[in-house]
User: Which sequence fits this backbone?
């Protein structure tokens, strides 16, 4: 099974500052046949289903503010929020969909 | 517009059974694999199970389970009714969670989520 590990577990960032969340997979989630990384990032707020932010590791979902960006390839990935806003307080998860057991990272709690 | 509506969540005693349903609309259900994901109180997201699309096959559809539910939960689907199921047997307190139905990406990389249904296992 692919194990997803996020760091840090929690993060406090000032408004307007950059937030960086890391995700590492225990094996590569890059499909060589199409050169795509099968990794997504979600934002999860209480009382709501998770919201897709990024897919294919770096493609921003429609409607997601451009302060959110994803990067990385293979086994190491990063979600960056360039200028933190109050509404970005949430728990963030990475998820691999390289195989049929779509494991999540343990989550990173982002606070102001 | 993709819609996924879960139902069937309830309070059940340890050792009991429950069947969750997910009614899907807004897409060709039989073309997509489907998953269940859960979140226990105060915990993170946990992938529970996935079932292949089934497509034109009426005989076999691939199924996958997290180790924590293997042998106790059974995922299934009825493509004629656009419905996904999760049969949960031998329930434990640690199965208490909000259960989400998730439409797989089907090559797009994007997955869709329902609002969730709450399962509480307690005596």
Assistant:
């Amino acid at each position: 099974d692919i194990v997803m590990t996020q760091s840090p577990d929690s993060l406090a960032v000032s408004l307007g500052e950059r937030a960086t969340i890391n995700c590492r997979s225990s094996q590569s989630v890059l499909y060589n046949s199409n050169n795509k990384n099968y990794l997504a990032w979600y934002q999860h707020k209480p009382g709501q289903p998770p919201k897709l932010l990024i897919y294919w590791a770096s493609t921003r979902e429609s409607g997601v503010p451009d302060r959110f960006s994803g990067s990385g390839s293979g086994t190491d990935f990063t979600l960056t929020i360039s200028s933190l806003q109050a509404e970005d307080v949430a728990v963030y998860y990475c998820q691999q969909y390289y195989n049929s057991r779509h494991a999540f990272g343990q989550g990173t709690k982002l606070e102001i | 517009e993709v819609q996924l509506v879960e139902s069937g969540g309830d309070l059940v005693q340890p050792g009991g059974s429950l069947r969750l349903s997910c009614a899907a609309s807004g897409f060709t259900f039989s073309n997509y694999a489907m998953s269940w994901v859960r979140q226990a109180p105060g915990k993170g997201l946990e992938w529970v199970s996935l079932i292949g699309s089934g497509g034109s096959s009426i005989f076999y559809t691939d199924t996958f389970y997290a180790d924590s539910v293997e042998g106790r939960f059974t995922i299934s689907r009825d493509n004629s009714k656009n419905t996904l199921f999760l049969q949960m047997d031998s329930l434990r307190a640690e199965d208490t969670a909000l259960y989400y139905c998730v439409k797989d990406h089907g090559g797009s990389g994007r997955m869709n989520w329902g609002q969730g249904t709450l399962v509480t296992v307690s005596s």
Chain A touches chain B through 24 residues (CB under 8 Å). The two ends of chain A are 34 Å apart (CA to CA).
